[in-house]
């Protein structure tokens, strides 16, 4: 009996078509990331002094502290996020939809505001508060990314291991954990990059004693006008990022072949026995995540004269003595419009990139595989380069494009999309790579063309991850502060930029308005995620 022809994810012509399709995402990154960053680095090198900065002991102390605090925060986020991922993916309990909404809230909060919240909870500041604050932001990355893949795992494999005499712990260690490793490695790489480039948290909690490469780049660029020093530190930061990306890629390559997705498998059920301990740990993590949020709400309602809604009423105004050029509500509308544009752009580029990466991985030949690994790393680079560098690079370079994008309202969505695209790829790619190739082969044998194979096979199995990527991207855009703070026009600030402006100006009303705007940002984010959950439908409370 003749064997059915193998369906490759790459269309006829091997890696040629995927390589051509890769030009769109790579071109976007080249124009809106590589060009501005290289322009700033070029200015720094042309001014001289880079070698002197690299020779300073202080430079390498900054690098060591940056890597150390990022590694510690990543470890804490993984330990806290895995029980929550189990709760979202495997436990059938009431209220999980609300928990999914709540888990996203810390991730969207502006870094400056979270820094202030942790300083209120931890007056002494220091390294521990920096690590915990960065982990606070990124528990959602672990919980949603790992939980998304965990939802797809065939639970019958664990049941089979238990039937053969394995304990729950051994079944998890031998069956589930290897299958989850790609998502764990992906989320760890993203969390590390977020923590290594954390700006507002370190600025608020580190003070003059603790600085990372990111805050030092900002100091030298904005306050000291030391472009050579900033360029040198950007090179050190980029080297650390490339090393992290390489480590993450190696981990994913070793583990990705374990998982096979199956449609229609029920994975969520009521916890049993020791699983309740994991559920308890998840709820303990959620309670800890709630603490800074409650501190923010408390601060938004408290004034020197007692409880008051003055900050929320002030959203209709411009702050003390006209601090803002627009009202708080105008900033809300700007944030919603900008986040929508950024998410649509990031989903278009990111999903196409994920499809191309899968096609290159399945195409024959080492050249295609190497091309895919290189492209994967390039797409992650925007997460690890200073937002200060990117923002100033835009102001230096984009006047050369038709229409001078420096004054265009699309500039901020472009910058935000750069941050969202890697996240979309990291969420979609592990699931897309894990689709059982035999399903594609069967569809091809029945005469389906590659596009129909994608629509009938890949899309249903990855739909949950696509929705999750879109939701994650939207809330990230709503709360993005780094690049947006340099690019948003005074007459069109996003809500995080407005919050930072208010906090930096004197006046009790400005402070109250800033905290009220932060609470409003949390509420808007919650409503967005609730709407997405409603659009998905009540199919299974354990779904991602």
UniProtKB/TrEMBL annotation:
Record's keyword annotation contains Cell membrane: yes
GO terms, biological process: transmembrane transport
Chief subcellular location: membrane
Keywords from the named record: Cell inner membrane, Cell membrane, Membrane, Transmembrane, Transmembrane helix, Transport
Pfam families, per database record: BPD_transp_1
GO cellular component, one term: plasma membrane
Cell location: Cell inner membrane; Cell membrane
UniProt xrefs under InterPro entries: MetI-like (IPR000515), MetI-like_sf (IPR035906)
Transmembrane segment boundaries: 20-43, 63-89, 101-122, 128-153, 174-207, 227-251, 276-297, 342-360, 380-398, 410-432, 465-488, 513-535
Keyword Cell inner membrane: yes
Topology term for the membrane: Multi-pass membrane protein
Domain ABC transmembrane type-1 residue range list: 63-246, 332-532
Family in the record: Belongs to the binding-protein-dependent transport system permease family.
UniProt protein name: Thiamine transport system permease protein
């Amino acid at each position: 009996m003749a064997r059915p022809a193998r369906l490759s994810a790459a269309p006829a012509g091997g890696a040629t078509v995927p390589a051509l399709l890769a030009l769109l995402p790579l071109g976007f990154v080249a124009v809106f990331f590589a060009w501005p960053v290289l322009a700033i680095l070029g200015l720094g090198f042309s001014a001289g002094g880079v070698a002197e900065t690299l020779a300073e002991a202080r430079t390498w102390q900054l690098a060591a502290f940056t890597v150390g605090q990022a590694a510690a925060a990543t470890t804490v986020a993984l330990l806290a996020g895995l029980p929550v991922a189990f709760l979202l993916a495997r436990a059938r309990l009431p209220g999980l939809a609300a928990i999914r909404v709540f888990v996203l809230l810390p991730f969207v909060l502006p870094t400056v505001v979270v820094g202030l919240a942790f300083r209120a909870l931890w007056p002494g500041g220091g390294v521990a508060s920096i690590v915990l604050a960065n982990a606070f932001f990124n528990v959602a990355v672990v919980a949603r990314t790992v939980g998304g893949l965990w939802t797809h795992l065939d639970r019958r494999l664990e049941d089979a291991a238990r039937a053969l005499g394995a304990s729950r712990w051994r079944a998890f260690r031998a069956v589930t954990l290897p299958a989850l490793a790609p998502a764990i490695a992906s989320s760890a790489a993203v969390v590390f990059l977020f923590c290594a480039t954390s700006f507002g948290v370190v600025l608020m909690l580190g003070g003059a004693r603790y600085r990372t490469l990111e805050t030092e780049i900002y100091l030298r660029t904005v306050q000291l006008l030391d472009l050579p020093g900033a360029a040198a530190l950007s090179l050190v930061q980029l080297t650390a990022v490339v090393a992290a990306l390489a480590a993450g890629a190696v981990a994913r390559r070793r583990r990705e072949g374990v998982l096979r997705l199956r449609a229609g498998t029920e994975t969520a059920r009521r916890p049993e026995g020791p699983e309740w301990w994991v559920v308890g740990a998840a709820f303990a993590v959620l309670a800890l995540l709630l603490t800074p949020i409650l501190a923010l709400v408390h601060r938004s309602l408290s004034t020197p004269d007692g409880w008051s809604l003055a900050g929320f009423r002030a959203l209709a105004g411009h702050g003390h003595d006209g601090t803002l050029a627009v009202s708080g509500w105008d900033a809300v509308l700007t944030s919603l419009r900008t986040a929508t544009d950024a998410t649509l752009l990031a989903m278009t580029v990111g999903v196409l990139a994920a499809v191309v990466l899968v096609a290159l991985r399945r195409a024959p030949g080492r050249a295609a595989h190497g091309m895919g690994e290189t492209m994967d790393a390039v797409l992650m680079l925007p997460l690890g380069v200073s937002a200060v560098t990117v923002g100033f690079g835009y102001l230096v370079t984009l006047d050369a494009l038709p229409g001078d994008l420096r004054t265009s309202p699309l500039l901020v969505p472009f910058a935000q999309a750069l941050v969202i695209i890697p996240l979309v790829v990291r969420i979609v790619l592990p699931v897309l790579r894990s689709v059982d190739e035999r399903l594609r082969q069967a569809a091809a044998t029945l005469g389906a063309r590659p596009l129909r194979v994608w629509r009938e096979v890949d899309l249903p199995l990855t739909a949950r991850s696509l929705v999750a990527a879109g939701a994650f991207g939207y809330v990230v855009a709503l709360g993005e502060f780094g690049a947006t703070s340099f690019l948003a026009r005074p007459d069109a600030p996003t809500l995080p930029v407005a919050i930072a402006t208010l906090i930096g100006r004197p006046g009790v009303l400005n402070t109250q308005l800033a905290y009220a705007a932060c609470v409003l940002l949390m509420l808007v984010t919650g409503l967005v995620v609730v709407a997405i959950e409603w659009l998905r439908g009540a199919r299974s409370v354990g779904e991602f």
